[in-house]
Amino acid sequence: MTSPEVIPGQLVLVRHGETAWSRAGRHTGRSDIPLTDAGEAQARATGIALAGRHFSLVLTSPLGRARRTAELVGHGDALVEPDLAEWDYGPVEGLTRTQVRENLGRPWSVLPGGVRVPVTISGTADVPPEQRPAEPGPGELVEEVAARAARVIARIEPTLLAGEDVLLVAHGHLLRIFTTVWLDLHAEVAERLALGTAARCVLGYDRGVRSLEHWNVLPVLDDDTEDLG
After folding, report:
1. Taking a C-beta distance cutoff of 8 angstroms, is the pair 74, 182 a contact?
2. What pTM was computed for the model?
3. Is-contact 127 28, C-beta < 8 A?
4. How far is CA 50 from CA 70, 124, 146, 165, 228, in A?
5. Tens digit of each residue's pLDDT (9 = 90 or more) over 134-167
6. Distance from C-alpha of 9 to C-alpha of 27, rounded to nearest angstrom
7. Among all residues, which ones are annotated catalytic?
């Protein structure tokens, strides 16, 4: 008698709640910028949406805004996974896209332009020392971010294939690039995947192939309405 086929679990992704920098459009990589009051409310709302779901494995980025989001979502015991840290933006840390473009004098976006660009201004001068990146450097290549995502997938996929659900709490660009790796797409496709603060996404499997089930489901606050379409 053959054993019944195991139905794979679902992978839920949650971006951290709003910070002052995410609200302003500043690239927030390794700077440890805390959640705003609105960001904490967003995280609690996402927690309500996920209430009652059991996750066999919950991982969070080591950065404070993600760990606080995990706590407010209801998973203060989440395991810290260093590979879930946000893209190290290097010289463009703290700068908006407009600031980088004006400084370079040409069009630019982090995808596909990359972060290793010769900007002559600093985006972290107004950041307290304790919130600045510990080891400022040249920044990561997108391929390095994708490699980190692949390592996380290798860690969690056995749990998913055993029929159990997994929750990851991390950051905008990291999760967007993670999703392109999950779907075997080029990392630059991540630029087309808008992801709001405290939004949740669901990845899974369709007939044995990794799939995207829901994307950018925003937290419901006050009279907001939720749309999975």
Report:
1. no
2. 0.93
3. no
4. 12, 35, 27, 12, 15
5. 767 899 999 999 999 999 999 999 999 999 999 9
6. 33
7. 16, 86
